[in-house]
């Protein structure tokens, strides 16, 4: 079936990738973005093989590989002693085991590459400074009939307005986790940070992830603490108040790690919200939610952007094969099964990363007995996944 009128709301990673995936199958689209210009915001991203495989199919691997960093290993370390607990080899292992590379880069870098691909594709039209908050918005109507789009893709993020038009859509709730994000210039980064890999430092009720961003000549640092309630006025809190929360969450950690977190320049402070279980499409089956609008999740398996890109690829495949009605139903069934497994893995990681007391001792013992290859096997279902 040919889509005569395909509209996408949101020009983030999910929306831009959706346009490219439909274009690859010959379907034209218009992407509506509320901002007047696409700003280069955000922090680092981990791109695992399940998603770099899709980016390769879209012809984007070459420009990305020219600037991203492929880590030797993903390492787990104690946040209190810095002792290595376990490691999974990824640099050469990823392509031989999962058929695609594992890489890290700045979110802005990926967005730039996606924007360039969209603007150079004749089947994609990017419309800036256009807010769309309803499927009945006049700007969406085309032709003599003035009808709604054949398909409207809501890629408008965790605070999606279009989600309000899906009966039984997921609710958004505070997860009980706070994230502090910062980039540190390479020249200022402490010596204990690994220049060759991705490191997760684990501690009671909190963890820190650090890795180099080659194109930014900096380290990406994200610190996540559970059980920290920022209160209703979190957005207006002073830097001093936020640092006090950070200090309390990481008390007892390695002195160097704590100093790095407390003295890092211009940290961003974000309560993390997540989507529950619910429907992703309306009754008319001409509106579908993807990415964070459908399934915003915690970053405990580093799959937020990856799931959005998988969504885009599989939505285009299903809709272009059978049309919007059947395609949306197949997409929702397929993706909700996949997301349930990813969420379960994230919950397991959260338990392991934030373990305390006897659970921490048991975790460390189990990890000490596992080889890198055996840990990699646990990820075959995730990293080896091939989107349809």
Automatic annotation (TrEMBL):
Keyword Cell cycle: no
Domain FAD-binding intervals: 7-319
Top EC class for this record: oxidoreductase
Keywords per UniProt: FAD, Flavoprotein, Monooxygenase, Oxidoreductase
Keyword Nuclease: no
Necessary cofactors: FAD
Pfam families: FAD_binding_3 (PF01494)
GO molecular function: salicylate 1-monooxygenase activity
E.C. designation(s): 1.14.13.1
Identification of the protein by name: Salicylate hydroxylase
Lineage: Bacteria, Pseudomonadati, Pseudomonadota, Alphaproteobacteria, Hyphomicrobiales
